[in-house]
Amino acid sequence: MNRKQGKPYYLRIDNNAVDMGIISASMNCRGCYRGVQKTISDMYGINVSLGHIYNVMKDKKDIAIEHNNNQPLQNISISANDELFHINSPILAGVDIDTLYCYLLKKENHRDGDTWGYHLIDLNKKAFNPNYTVCDHGAGLRSGQSQAMPGTPCHGDVFHIIKSMKDMLRFFKNRLKKADNYRKSLEIKQEKSSSHKKNKKHKSNLAAARKDEKKYRSIEPDLRALVGWMEHDILSISGSNPEERHEMYQFIVTELEKIEQLHPHRIKEVRTALVNQEKALLGFVDVMAVHFKSVALKFNVPEYIVWEVCKLQKYKLNNYHERKISLQRSLTYQCYEIETEVINIMDKIQRASSMVENFNSRVRPYLVVKKTVNNGFLDLLRFYMNHTPIERSFKEERQGKTPAERLNKATHPHWLNMLGFSPLQKAA
Q1: What pTM, to 2 d.p., does this model score?
Q2: What gap in Å lies between CA 122 and CA 415, rounded to an integer?
Q3: DSSP reduced 3-state for 355
Q4: pLDDT tens, position by position, 296-339
Q5: 10 and 427 in contact (C-beta within 8 Å)?
């Protein structure tokens, strides 16, 4: 009802409206075929067959594929690739980190280097040539990119290694707590023991328990410090110059190797990963170094000054102002301008593949309701997500705009109109 005029609306429910409802319920409501069938029946009082729903989806998939294939990708500067799974079958995904445009969503039988390489070569034909990519350390993904895009750096995702280190630290915290409780329980048993034989046994167990507790008490604080340095100093955007970061990185690896001699479980796995991933994990620092060198030349100041301004950003209010005084004395009126340039550069640096992980989390609800998923449906889903406005985002430039609009820097019609549907008309 129109509340102002008190008159009902009349809409012409024709084949266009029914088919539009089928597609809309499938995409907006993540509906399965039977759910869509029930929705159309409840809303319009029209019974549609599962075969008709399938045919409508198939026809619109072909249109979506055409739109996807005609989209040039030269505006993508930083991309993130990842894999998700549907009933043990891998689905390869790729997202532009800045615009959130999905340029790849394909189901495959394998996720090896050849499969990834095939899709990346196909993307190159659409002018896909990012400055660098960010991904986890999957062997197939990295192998495929090295074959298809040998000149494009593949930076490591810092989230996974930090999570592994925190899991390692949590393990030793729990071991320390368990050892402490066990030692206390043995002390209580020894105090209450009246038998000489039991007392001797408790004394022996207590000595071993104290030894274990002492070992974990020496390990846990060291690991806590090392994990904190790695997270907040080395792999943080605000921090020291590349040389200092690599030096601190090597120090942490060396210290972990020493602790590993006392307790290799968990530590060896993390240390090995750190050794193998150093170049990839610190790739974002090299990108910062290039930009900061340009800033230093622009303002005619030493590079270390620019890095000091970068390092300044990690401090809280009181420490920030104390440390900024010395920089202001040396830079005078240029201090604010240099800091503004540095902050703008830091905002654009990407060191995690969280955008493609977020995209995967939006795709999964569509997969849960389906026993089988083909690439035609994934192409339609990719088209829908690329041409649907983003309602909520911490970045204001993303709110209310579709990924395709931001990638092309131009508006486009409603996604249903792009699929060939005409707008609903009021009945005469």
Answers
A1: 0.87
A2: 25
A3: helix
A4: 999 999 999 999 999 999 988 778 887 888 888 878 788 899 99
A5: yes
Question: Which of 230, 259, 281 is at the close of a domain?
Answer: 281
Using the 8-state DSSP alphabet, how is residue 138 labeled?
-
Which residue from 281, 339, 350, 282 is spatially nearest to 305, judged by alpha carbons?
A: 339
Report how far residue 109's alpha carbon sits from residue 259's, in angstroms, rounded to the nearest whole number: 42
Q: Which of 292, 313, 348 is the last residue of a domain?
A: 348
> What's the confidence (pLDDT) of residue 74?
95
Task: Single out the residue of 312, 165, 144, 295 nearest to residue 224, CA to CA.
Answer: 165
Residues 21 and 148 in one domain: yes
**Structural domain range at position 361:** 1-156+352-428
Q: Which two tokens stand for residue 395?
A: 């970045």
Closest by alpha carbon to 160, among 90, 97, 101, 235?
Answer: 235
Structural domains counted in the chain: 3
**CA distance linking residue 238 with residue 231, whole number of Å:** 11
Predicted pLDDT of residue 13: 79
Q: What are 132's two structure tokens?
A: 């660098």
- Structure-token pair, residue 71: 């989209």
Radius of gyration of the chain measured on its C-alpha atoms: 29
Q: What is the mean pLDDT of the chain?
A: 91
β partners of residue 86: 89
385: helix, strand or coil: helix
Q: Is the CB of residue 172 less than 8 Å from the CB of residue 148?
A: no
3-state secondary structure of 105: strand
What's the pLDDT band for 7 if we cut at 50, 70, 90? Answer: low
pLDDT over 80 (residue 200):
no
Name which of 64, 65, 17 is nearest 422 in CA terms.
Answer: 17
Look up residue 48 and give its two tokens.
């549609």
Smallest CA-to-CA distance from 57 within 24, 80, 87, 11 is with 24
pLDDT at 12 > cutoff 80: no
Kindly report which listed range (69-83, 147-161, 185-199, 340-354) carries the lowest average pLDDT score: 185-199
Examine the domain organization and report whether 112 and 150 are in the same domain: yes
Nearest to 278 by CA among 294, 262, 254: 254
Structure tokens at 402: 């579709």
Q: Are 389 and 402 in contact (CB under 8 A)?
A: yes
